């Protein structure tokens, strides 16, 4: 019985440690991985889950996508694209309102959490991203999202992958990510060495 209790306790502690590690790793990832600040998502929330509300969500989505398409294709960074779209927020809101069939619409930039998603060569890790968000009515229904940068919004949903321009943008992000990771790794390694005993420093 005592052996069983020890195994149970050990197993429970192991699960807790693994869970704690995963949380710490996620925090570390979001603080160090440049993908979060170099990606711009697009998020549309429907008024409700009623059939008409869901249909209206897609009509509003399409209207906004048509309006910002030129800006998205010209973008060479998420920051510049966000700046360009921020200057047109009122116009985007008007476009969305015209397509919402009388439902109130709110258009704004925010940071929100997204689950992990895999689109062809691109893997967007779970975490908090900057996004242009469109809330229709109560914004209580199922939502729709994609990425403005890298360009993911203008490909068929059945084959949701990066467009050609999106692939080039993704390459820039991954190159930046690799550079930042090397920089961060070197930084943390340097800090770690300060706390290592003298013999460990000599062996590094």
UniProtKB/TrEMBL annotation:
InterPro entries: Spore_II_R. It comes from Anaerobutyricum hallii. This is Stage II sporulation protein R. Pfam families: Spore_II_R.
